[in-house]
Design brief:
Elements lengths: L5 E8 L12 H16 L2 E6 L5 H12 L2 E4 L2 E4 L4 E8 L2 E2 L14 E2 L13 E2 H5 L1
Parallel strand pairs: 1-2, 1-5
Antiparallel strand pairs: 3-4, 6-7, 7-8
């Protein structure tokens, strides 16, 4: 295993949902985690809060990650094998077998900011994030 040369984090917090009940502290909690990672552990952090965390934004984020890239300070940055990447989500989600669930992999969904509880096409499979 290569030595870790850089620590990266994707921190997502959603309080204000478009179509499902609101939360009160998800953004505060996510921001607190991001601050600790930056200030005490020297992480570079991508923060996505409320309207920045729509299904479209999640799709773009996952596409970037598949291409081993992350947006930091407004620029796409290459993710190296020596980088550590932490993913943190504070918001609605639920544990349920998804269409793409496999043995030993996460099962369930994250709810993007614009998710509709009655339309599973607007949800984000935990397995997709895991991949």
């Amino acid at each position: 295993m290569p030595k870790i040369t850089r620590s990266l984090a994707i921190i997502i917090g959603i309080d204000r949902y478009s179509h499902i009940p609101q939360l009160k502290n998800a953004v505060f909690d996510a921001n607190s985690v991001a601050n600790v990672l930056e200030e005490k552990h020297n992480y570079q952090v991508l923060r996505l809060f409320d309207e920045q965390a729509t299904k479209e934004k999640f799709s773009q984020l996952l596409e970037n990650l598949q291409n081993k890239k992350i947006e930091l300070e407004g620029k796409l940055t290459q993710i190296k094998t020596s980088d550590r990447l932490l993913f943190y989500f504070a918001g609605h989600g639920f544990d349920q077998e998804s269409e793409d669930s496999e043995e030993g992999k996460p099962a369930g969904y994250f709810m993007p900011q614009d998710a509709d509880a009655n339309d599973n096409k607007t949800w984000l499979s935990m397995n997709k994030v895991y991949e």
